[in-house]
Please model this.
Amino acid sequence: MRQSHSLKAEKNVTVYGSLAAGDDLIEGILTECRKHGITSGKVSSIGSLKEVGYVLFETIDGQPTGYGKELSIDRPVELLNGSGFICLDEHGELDMHLHGMVVEEDGTIKAGHFLRGKNPALITVEFSITYGEDIEARRMLDQDLGFRVINFARK
Model:
């Protein structure tokens, strides 16, 4: 059974950057991670998006079933907050688990789990990545839970 866990990084480093118009939110940040050799870290972002692709968590009778159907906003929005973790997946590929909140021009706020390749920057997206050089994050299927979860370990 999965247990709560934590690690204290001995040395944290922060990278600051911005994505150009048209760069995908997740792919763009992962590209910057590759430039800096980052495979695990915490990301925070704000900016504007041309459109949004996301999903919401679903339950049946109070039991988690995963994410539901893809939702989209097909017009520009302001990215109020994007927050998530950079990790390696079960195949050793760079991955990101990113949630966020956007506001439409009429003030409607929507939030959810952002989808890779579905969130192009409108003007720019500013971001920061904080990572511990001695920490590794891996997102893998937890058999007991039936979901992919991130586990942290020392490198």
